[in-house]
Write a structure and sequence with these properties.
Length: 153
């Protein structure tokens, strides 16, 4: 999927989730793009999980307990009924579990710093915090809100 297609397809979902939870839709979509390879990851395509959210925790209005295994004997990940549920559950998770990141979401560099150096990232699973931080900032710089819609420059 091309970047423009990704933004057109999922930008409104990021805006809805951002509005509902008081988050910047730019950082929501930037993180979705990073985590899902612009919507091309197996997890995004097969489970509507654009954020690599693991399949643990209590069910909620957006996640009904469905899980998927990527077949590598590793973690289980959440499987959502719709892409909208994936975006809404992510926004819910950020505001409830990562309030420091949520509080600075309208400042993408500060948000990237908070989320990259939080327990959202697992170095034990091979994540690189600094590369993650830089990637969110880089993607966020390509996105902007125009007349209530996300666009990519």
């Amino acid at each position: 999927m091309k970047k423009q297609e990704f933004v057109e397809k999922y930008g409104e979902m990021a805006c809805t989730a951002g509005q509902l939870y008081g988050l910047n839709p730019v950082v929501i979509l930037a993180q979705a793009a990073l985590e899902s390879g612009w919507g091309m990851s197996t997890l995004a395509v097969q489970a509507y999980n654009f954020f690599g959210i693991t399949g643990y925790g209590v069910t909620n209005a957006y996640w009904h307990g469905g899980k998927t295994d990527l077949g590598n004997g590793g973690l289980l990940f959440r499987r959502y009924d719709t892409p909208e549920h994936g975006f809404l559950d992510f926004a819910r998770l950020i505001t409830t579990v990562y309030p420091q990141a949520a509080a600075v979401s309208f400042f993408p560099a500060a948000y990237a710093q908070e989320i990259a150096y939080s327990r959202y990232i697992s170095e034990a699973n091979g994540d690189n915090r600094e590369a993650y931080r830089k990637a969110i900032i880089g993607i966020a710089k390509q996105l902007r809100l125009k007349e209530g819609r996300l666009i990519i420059d």
